[in-house]
Amino acid sequence: MSEANSPALAQIHYWIREDYFGTALRKMDEFGDREVGREGECHWKTLRAFCIVRLGRSSEAMRLLNIMLRDESMAEYKLSTLHALRIAHCSEKKIDREALRELDRQIQTLWSQQIPERGAFTATTLLLLDRQFERARPLLDKLSSQSNSSFLSLRGWLELLSGKVSQSTLENFDRAIALDKNVEAFLGKAHLFKIRQNIIDMESTLNSLLNANSSVLPAYVELAKASAMNRHWETMAEICQKAALIQSDCLPILFLDFVYSYLILGDIQGEQILAEFVDAMLLTEASNQSQFLRIGSLLASIALDRKNITTQAKRLVDAALGIRQNSQALLLKSSLSLAEGDIRQASQLALRAVESGSNIENEKGLNNEDNQNGERAVLTMIRCQLAEQQNDKQLKEINQQLEFLQQTHSDVKEQSLFHYLLALLAKRGNKPDEQVFSHLNIAVDVHFAYNQYTIFSEENLISLNPSILVEIAELILKSADSVGIPAIRVADRILSIVHQNCPGKQFFI
């Protein structure tokens, strides 16, 4: 399995793990078959098909995989090809159950036979990247070459991504690195330290990787993220410059450039960098809805008063809606429309989100994320209603909606937006400032309950949501004359945390 230790394959695996499927395909084209050799060609093609599926082109992937199945020279990889075909079939809007049963039958038949080493390794890698950990684990145990660096690294990544980290996880990565400086193992070890927020060892591991191989672009990306976690902004900027020498349009690096320019320095030039990033994202990651929504959510959370940031967020969300109109995309577009003052469109989008299958009455049996999307859809609708002029009767109806939501979904109280809406309702109903402040204070406590934002990361920025926090701070300060020092203290707490993460932004409240 020497081909599995290819630095090129390690980088492809990285981009897939990070959900940059278009980037992974592009890198495969750039590296070419020469980087993995004939032995790794089937592994390469299987990953290509997987990326194509994740970009919504399952029919194209099936054609490629069926050609591989008919190619006798790729017989060793039949199990991984069948698993890839199964993934492709499961991604179809209308699943062919009969074809799926036939694939399962063939997979089961191969399991009862001696599985070729290379094919088993590729199949395990594929299942790991698809987060089918329970299927990947027994297949990994079938591998006989359990002492080489590729196996050790794969074992470490399986434990890491499945959440079953133990002392052996780090030991597996260390042994793989000691054997032949396995790039995959370096990245896995750094990721383990990242999860533990051990930034010093994370940086040390990545620097060791770059000393061994200075052209591994993902190492620069993760090293830049480590500097950002520590808020060492100038160091992060220097690393981004080095990475740009390897690839000038690397998407994560471009985005970190934007973060540095816009959020940290407060430079208006950051908006131009963002426009270039979005152009590159829409080109390279075409049809990658999950990335469009992730970046769109982040931009919405930090847009504040900058219309150009909102515009770029809407470009990504519109692209996501063009792929599939799910509740997450509809709610994000609704929030952006509301921020621009288009209450009518915001209300229509929120209503469509409720009707898209995430409404309260259809949530039984859904997972927690689906359930929260349903709650958010109703809360967003109510927020749109409160943005319009309402008479006493309408305000009473809104209050009844919130009470009903609380009775049927007790966990809605764990969402800061719920308490913020109670404050807005009290304000619109001319309730005492003390009552308004009480709701806002609870909203702030709930917002900060699960994360104190001690490190900087894209995920923390999304959950921090500076845009909504600044709105809350504005409303709190409006009650300061009546409430006094407590209101000022809470507002100061909010703006201090926001400024810590967005030092380049100025707030005139």
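(the above was protein one; protein two follows)
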Amino acid sequence: MLVAFSLDRSGRVLTQAINTSSGHASLDAAALDMLVRAQPLPPPPPEIHGVVLQLTVPVRFFLN
């Protein structure tokens, strides 16, 4: 799955969305919840410019 989100300079998640679903609603919801629970994320380094950063990251779950 791919999760897209925007991040402000302090590491706060401003928006989040599933770009590519896992095919399972519960896993998609868990990926979004992961971002909420991880806040604040580390702030971006100063050499990365912009007030808001747009990121898309892969998320993989391994189930036993």
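Reviewer note on protein two: The chain has one domain: 2-58.
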